[in-house]
Write a structure and sequence with these properties.
The protein is of the alpha/beta class and 453 residues long. It is built from 13 helices and 22 strands. Strands 4, 13, 14, 15, 18, 19, 20, 21 and 22 form a nine-stranded mixed sheet that branches. An eight-stranded parallel barrel has the order 5-6-7-8-9-10-11-12, surrounded by four helices. Strand 2 and strand 3 form a beta hairpin. It starts with a strand and ends in a 5-residue tail after the last helix. The structure holds ligand LLP.
């Protein structure tokens, strides 16, 4: 559920008509709803409350500092994977203690930065290899601090909505196998620690199974594997006080895709409650669940191009794979609908074949509404893959119309590029009846700024 709704056929973000935003800021523009961000963060907090987890928002999903600042104000920590994301989290006011630094390739300068935050280093490094742990130990020793680390374990559970976003399979580059993690923990056991190794404390285990996960099953398979390993590490003398379950909870791309967080929480809590009562700290790293439904991409139709010969209609927009990469990269479905429609075409549910108040019977039969025609919605980029929606039944669309791509708040702007030298889009945050530009549209001057003599 989100706060992008039609009122008298006009799409609003909370209390603001999207047409007002387009008129003020132009297109393409990402528009976020504060109320939806709050709602999704709160749903997770409430569902997992018995475990009192630190919820670290996956910054990669939606890194704008104004969004991060709002989530920090709700009590969230941050999951970062680069010096850039760390800088964003700090700029948003996140306490370093509430930051976990993940990522398979942390450069030495990035490690140094994360160990130099004030008043203390970041709360946790999620370590993915023996050499990375060595590098963290060396940096910490040189800086005279102690790094708190969690070993990222690959529990070998295939999970996730697309093969590109599965991260815990035997061929995946992420994490340590259970055997590797055990060996590393032995090498860094507090009893054998040399001077440098003494600057890292293995305090936890981490996993991240994949993304767009819609059933608790993979967590139920993986968590016991981590708990068994945690017990082994404790026997070696480590104090394992943290279990980081990663992110991965799915979002509503089609209405009803995402289970309520309670579906995950009710399954996971019994596995961990006793240990939490005994002092274990739980971390989760959701990105998509919080941000996806909180953002839409607003785009304007440049041209409508109909080919009599093939019978195909192309709706050419000012947003494309440079603005929203997910359809081209993952064949991802984003519901797309005009920002203004006749009342009978206000969608009740979103999906390839949406439902309408007036045509319930028809929709149940999965037949397209008689007023819809099947079209391809494409972007301006010189690539055949630049398709936002393929063979999609849509209401009549004319040149100049505004379209909205829903559930684009996660991995939308963060994966946007300047391909074909299009400046990056603007970002707007709506709060009730007010909206603020939280990232101005790039200009043509910005494009050249780094290349000037
Ligand atoms: N933690 C770690 C270590 C991760 O690698 C990720 C996402 C997350 C947390 C957050 O996962 P989430 O809760 O958002 O599913 N670009 C792809 C998604 C890639 C996800 C990468 N890692 C997409 O657009 O679907």
């Amino acid at each position: 559920m989100d706060h992008f709704t039609y009122r008298h056929g006009t799409l609003h973000a909370e209390g603001v008509p999207l047409a007002d935003i387009a008129a003020a800021v132009g297109t393409p523009t990402y528009v976020y709803s504060t109320a939806t961000l709050t709602r999704h963060a709160t749903l997770l907090q409430d569902a997992f409350a018995p475990l009192r987890p630190l919820i670290c928002f996956a910054v990669k999903s939606c890194p704008n500092i104004h969004i991060l600042r709002h989530l920090v104000s709700l009590g969230l920590g941050m999951d970062v994977v680069s010096a850039g994301e760390l800088t964003r989290a700090l700029a948003a006011g996140c306490e370093p203690a509430n930051i976990v630094f993940a990522g398979v390739g942390k450069a030495r300068a990035e490690i140094d930065l994360a160990l130099s935050t004030r008043p203390a280093p970041v709360g946790q490094f999620n370590v993915e290899s023996a050499q990375e742990l060595e590098a963290i130990a060396a940096s910490a020793s040189a800086l005279g601090v102690t790094a708190r680390v969690a070993l990222r374990v690959n529990p070998m559970v295939a999970a996730g909505g697309h093969v590109h976003i599965q991260t815990a399979t035997p061929t995946s580059k992420f994490g340590l196998s259970i055997d590797q993690a055990r060996a590393l923990a032995r090498a860094y056991s507090p009893n054998h620690a040399d001077h440098t190794a003494g600057h890292v404390r293995i305090a936890g285990l981490h996993m991240h199974l994949g993304s767009s996960i819609v059933t608790p099953q993979p967590y139920l398979l993986a968590i016991p594997r981590l708990l068994a390993l945690a017990d082994e590490l404790a026997d070696m003398g480590h104090t394992i006080d943290t279990l980081d379950l990663g992110g991965g909870f799915g979002a509503d791309y089609n209405t009803g895709d995402a289970p309520a967080p309670t579906a995950f929480a009710h399954a996971i809590i019994p596995l961990l409650q006793a240990r939490v009562n005994a002092g274990l700290k739980v971390v989760i790293e959701p990105g998509r669940f919080i941000a996806a439904n909180a953002g839409i991409l607003l785009t304007r139709v440049l041209y409508v191009k109909h080919d009599q010969g093939t019978g195909r209609t192309f709706i050419v927009c000012d947003a494309g794979m440079n603005t929203l990469l997910r359809p081209a990269l993952y064949d991802a479905f984003h519901f797309l609908w005009p920002a203004r429609v006749p009342p009978e075409l206000v969608p009740l549910t979103r999906g390839h074949t949406p439902t309408f108040a007036s045509t319930t019977a028809q929709s149940l039969a999965h037949a397209p509404h008689p007023q819809l025609t099947t079209v391809d919605v494409v972007g301006p980029i010189c690539e055949s893959a630049d398709v936002l929606a393929k063979a999609r039944p849509l209401p009549p669309i004319a040149q100049g119309d505004l379209l909205s791509l829903f559930a684009a708040g996660a991995y939308g702007m963060s994966m946007a590029s300047r391909y074909n030298s299009h400046p990056l889009p603007a970002e707007v945050l709506v709060n009730d009846r007010a909206f603020t530009t939280i990232r101005r549209r790039e200009t043509l001057d910005d494009l050249l700024a780094h290349e000037r003599d």
